[in-house]
C-alpha cells in the first residue's frame, strides 16, 4: 500500500516538524546546524524519505518528498519547475511501466497528495502561492494548510481561512475534496463535512512532550504564556489533517491520482 | 525634533501593528479588505505618515515610512532599489538645503533609523534579508527585529538570535549600537548593555486590550492557551525596542545619521 506525499513550502514553516508529528516519529534525521559561511543552495532540491508505518491495522509504505529551497531565493520565478518536473517524471515512469509486457506489479511512485504550506501572514495568499498552486493543482491532489497556526488568534484564523478560500475560488485553483456519492450514509456525509469545513487546515506541529497547566503530558509547544496542544482540536486542525491523509481519504487520494490526474496527464501526453 | 523611521519587511510580519503599538495609537487607517480580484502592486511603494507625539515631555515630530510590496513578489531582486533611492533622495535634499544661502532652519527629513523585520522561521537570515541589509547598513541605522516572536518558544528565540547575529557578523553587516564613552557612568553602561544584549529584539505588537488569566487588562494577544502581554519583558522585547527608539538613544540615532552616515554619503557623492 503506497502513499506518496509531497511537502511544499518555504523554509521555516515547520514542514519537517509536521512530517515527524504526522507519523509520530522523527522521520528526518536532525538538521545539521547551518554554518553562516555555508553557501545556500542555488536551486530547489528534492529529498525523499520512505518508511513503513502502520495505521488502523493498515500497513502503509509511506514516502514523504520534501522540496528544500522552494520559495527561499531572492528570485523565486523558477521555484516550481523542479517540483512539476518531479511529478511529471513519476507519471512518465508509470506510463512506461503500464506499457510493458509484464506489468503484474507496478510500483506506484506517483504523488498522491501535495501538502502546500501557507505562511501565517494573516492577510491572504502570496503571489508565489498562487503561481505555484496553479502549476500543481491539475497534477496532484492539493491540500493547502496554514503553517504555524499558533501565530494567529482564533478570530484571525477564521478571517484568514475565508480570504484564502476566496483567493482560491477567484484563481480557480482546485483543492482536494473527497467525492460525495448519492448513497453515502448520513454519518459519512457529516464526517466529510466536519473535516472539509476546516480547510485550509490551521496546523501546529511538535514532537516534544510538554506539561500542561493542569498536569497532563501532551505533544505541544510550551510558551511562557501557555501550552498549545497539537492533538487538541480546540487549538488547531492537526488531527483533521491526519485523518484526511492516513485514515478517512487514503483511498480517495490514491484513486483520484490514478483515475483522474494520471489519466488526464496520459491523455495530454499521448495526444501531443 | 524630527524623528524619521523607516519600516522594512515583507507583508504580514506585523509592521503596521508594531508601529501603532510603538506610538500607542493607531497611526495608520485600518487596512481595506483586500479584494481577491485586485491586482497586487508591481513595485515597492513608499508610504509615509507623520504625527506629533510626546514622549517623556519631549515633543517629537515623528514620521514613519512604510514600504508595502517589499519582499512580496515572486522575484524580489529589485525590492531594495526603491528603498535605497528614497534614503539617498533624503540625503540629497539635505545636501541641497545645506548649500543654500539661507539655511537657518533646515527641515531634517533624513532617515534616522530603519527597523528591519525578520520572519520568525527559527532558522537564520534569508538570502533576501542579507542582500537588503547589506544595501542599507551604510546608509541608515539598522535595527533588526524578530517579527511576531510569539511564534517561537524562549529556547527557539535564544538559538535564532544567536544564529542571526552569527550571520550578521559573517556578512559584516553593521547594526546600530549606541557609542560607548570612556567617562560613561556605570549605570548608563549597564543600561546600554541591558538593551543591546537583546538585539535582535524579539517583538510582539498589539493595540488590543485583553484580559489575562489573573484578571489584569493588558495590551496583548489572546489565544485559547494563554495571553501574551506586549509590555511584559518576560514575554518579548517590545519595551526594549521602544526604549531604544524614543527614549534612550533618540539623540544617538539622530547624531549618527548626521555626523557619520550623512557625512559618508556626502563625501562619496562630492568625490565621485
Ligand atoms: N510556532 C510554531 N513553530 C513551529 C511549528 N512547527 C515547527 N515550529 C518551529 O519552527 C522552526 C522551523 O521548523 P522546521 O520544521 O525546521 O521548518 P521547515 O524549514 O519548514 O522544515 C523550528 O524552530 C520549529 O520548532 C508550529 O506548528 N508552530
Ligand atoms: N502572532 C502575532 N501576530 C501579529 C503580531 N502583530 C501583528 N500580528 C497579526 O499579523 C497580521 C498582520 O499584521 P500587519 O500589522 O497587518 O502586518 P504587515 O503586513 O507587516 O503590516 C494581523 O492579523 C495582526 O493581528 C505579533 O506580534 N504576533
Q: What report would you give on this structure?
A:
The structure is a homodimer of 272-residue chains. Chain A is an alpha/beta fold and 272 residues long. The first copy, chain A, is 36% helix and 19% strand. Chain A has helices at 15-22, 81-98, 127-136, 154-170, 186-196, 238-248, 250-271, and strands at residues 2-8, 47-55, 58-66, 113-118, 142-146, 201-202, 209-211, 217-223, 226-229. In chain A, the strands form two sheets. A six-stranded mixed β-sheet of chain A has the order 2-3-1-4-5-6, sandwiched between helices. Chain A has a three-stranded antiparallel β-sheet with strand order 7-8-9, with no helix packed on it. In chain A, helix 6 (238-248) packs across helix 7 (250-271). Chain A is globular and about 65 Å long. One guanosine-5'-diphosphate sits between chains B (11-17, 148, 150, 204-205, 221) and A (122, 151, 156).
Amino acid at each position: 500500500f503506497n502513499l506518496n506525499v509531497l511537502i511544499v513550502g518555504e523554509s521555516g514553516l515547520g514542514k519537517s516538524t509536521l512530517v515527524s508529528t504526522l507519523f509520530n516519529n522523527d522521520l528526518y534525521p536532525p538538521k545539521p546546524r547551518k554554518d553562516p559561511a555555508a553557501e545556500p543552495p542555488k536551486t530547489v532540491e528534492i529529498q525523499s524519505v520512505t518508511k513503513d508505518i502502520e495505521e488502523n491495522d493498515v500497513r502503509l509504505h509511506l514516502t514523504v518528498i520534501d522540496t528544500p529551497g522552494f520559495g527561499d531565493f531572492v528570485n523565486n520565478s523558477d521555484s516550481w519547475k523542479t517540483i512539476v518536473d518531479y511529478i511529471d517524471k513519476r507519471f512518465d515512469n508509470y506510463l512506461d511501466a503500464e506499457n510493458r509486457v509484464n506489468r503484474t506489479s507496478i510500483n506506484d511512485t506517483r504523488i498522491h497528495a501535495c501538502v502546500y504550506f501557507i505562511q501565517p501572514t494573516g492577510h491572504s495568499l502570496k503571489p508565489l502561492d498562487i503561481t505555484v498552486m496553479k502549476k500543481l493543482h491539475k497534477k496532484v491532489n492539493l491540500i493547502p494548510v496554514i503553517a504555524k497556526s499558533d501565530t494567529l488568534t482564533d478570530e484571525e484564523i477564521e478571517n484568514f481561512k475565508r480570504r484564502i478560500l476566496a483567493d482560491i475560488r477567484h484563481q480557480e485553483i482546485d483543492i482536494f475534496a473527497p467525492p460525495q456519492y448519492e448513497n453515502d450514509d448520513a454519518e459519512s456525509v457529516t464526517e466529510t463535512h466536519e473535516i472539509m469545513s476546516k480547510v485550509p487546515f490551521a496546523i501546529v506541529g511538535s514532537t516534544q512532550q510538554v506539561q500542561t497547566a493542569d498536569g497532563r503530558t501532551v505533544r505541544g509547544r510550551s510558551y511562557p504564556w501557555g501550552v498549545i496542544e497539537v492533538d487538541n482540536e480546540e487549538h488547531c486542525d492537526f488531527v483533521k489533517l491526519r485523518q484526511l491523509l492516513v485514515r478517512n481519504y487514503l483511498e480517495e487520494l490514491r484513486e483520484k491520482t490514478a483515475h483522474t490526474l494520471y489519466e488526464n496527464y496520459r491523455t495530454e501526453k499521448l495526444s501531443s
